[in-house]
Amino acid sequence: MTDTDPRTRPGTVTAVAPSPRPATAPDGTPTPAYVYDLAAVRSAHARLRSWLPEPSELYYSLKANPHPAVVSTLHRLGCRAEVSSPGELGAALEAGVPASDILYTGPGKRDEDIAGALAAGVRDFAVDSVHAVDQLDRAAALHGVRVGYLLRVNPGGGSRGAGLRMTGDPSAFGADAEDVRTRPQRYTGGDHARIEGLHLYLATNIADEAALGDSFGEAIEVARTLCQAVGRPLRTIDLGGGFGAPYAREGELPAYPGLAARLTGELDRALPGWRHHAPTVAFESGRYLTATCGRLLTRVLDVKESHGQRVVVLDTGINHLGGMAGLRRVPPLHPDVVRPDGAGPQDAGRTSTTEPPGPAMICGPLCTPLDTWARSRPLPAVAPGDLLAVPNTGAYGLHASLVLFLGHPAPLEVVTDGGRTVRSDRLTFVRRAEP
Question: What digits encode the pLDDT tens for the residues 263-277?
Answer without folding.
Answer: 999 999 999 999 999
